[in-house]
């Protein structure tokens, strides 16, 4: 799945398949300007920062179990968001400090350090770098991903795929080749 935020005409947090199909709103109320998003891949939660409401909130992948982690002036101007173990990590764009926030109670907020021009924070951990299983976009005997001549996108599962073409090309009737 692909998770993303939108604060155009109607602010929301959404998810869809990697090929853009099955687009679903998971948060569409009491939300104004969601800017940063992070996933807890293990427990299947979506965290986001709303810079208009000065809040960090969480919801499960289906849009249930929503609650506010922290809200208020203490977390104004946040950008970037990452999850690692019991904490959320984010950047305060006012003073360029990296903040650590307890994601279960929101009361434990700590500035860890400052970095010039910091805009984003990422955490890499071995548990979320799962072994790749066989999938529909693997290269075929001719080296074409998923048998697609240009772009292969996973669809509703790792066993399904959709072929797409680069700009200026049209997908052929076979659903794989681009002309």
UniProtKB/TrEMBL annotation:
GO biological process: canonical Wnt signaling pathway
GO CC annotation terms, alphabetical: plasma membrane
Organism classification: Eukaryota, Metazoa, Chordata, Craniata, Vertebrata
Protein name: LRP1B protein
Listed Pfam families: FXa_inhibition (PF14670), Ldl_recept_b (PF00058)
Highest taxon above the source species: Eukaryota
UniProt LDL-receptor class B repeat ranges: 1-43, 44-87
MF term (GO), any: Wnt-protein binding
InterPro entries per UniProt: 6-blade_b-propeller_TolB-like, Cueball_EGF_LRP_Nidogen, LDLR_classB_rpt
Protein's gene: Lrp1b_2
